[in-house]
């Protein structure tokens, strides 16, 4: 597949998650809720996590922002749901490295649709948009483990 076709496919995946977000909404009161924003561009995200026995049993998000920010939240919640916390954090590390244009050691972790955001690394001003939900998840998991 040529670079232009791949770039078009990736844009379509991002726009699909933006227009048809997965896991949008809130969880029950006993869930962990993390609010974060990107003051540079105004993106605001709220991640809701249900973590039990070291497993992310459910994940949802709410917020306002650009297509990159909201599609990344959609992809992240879809990817971490049902995963051990350690795996969710490893995915976050891989994603952060990908956004920084660094080599990623994916081992046996399949990023799926998340790879569509790889092109964001070429636009430094948009990296914070893409990583906002992931940073919120990391913060929530850290707070939950205390």
TrEMBL record:
Annotated ranges, domain NIF system FeS cluster assembly NifU N-terminal: 10-129
Coiled coil: none
InterPro entries: NIF_FeS_clus_asmbl_NifU_N
UniProt signal peptide: none
Organism superkingdom: Bacteria
MF terms (GO), sorted A to Z: iron ion binding; iron-sulfur cluster binding
SUPFAM superfamilies on file: SufE/NifU
One GO biological process term: iron-sulfur cluster assembly
Database matches in Pfam families: NifU_N
Family: Belongs to the NifU family.
Protein name stated in the entry: SUF system NifU family Fe-S cluster assembly protein
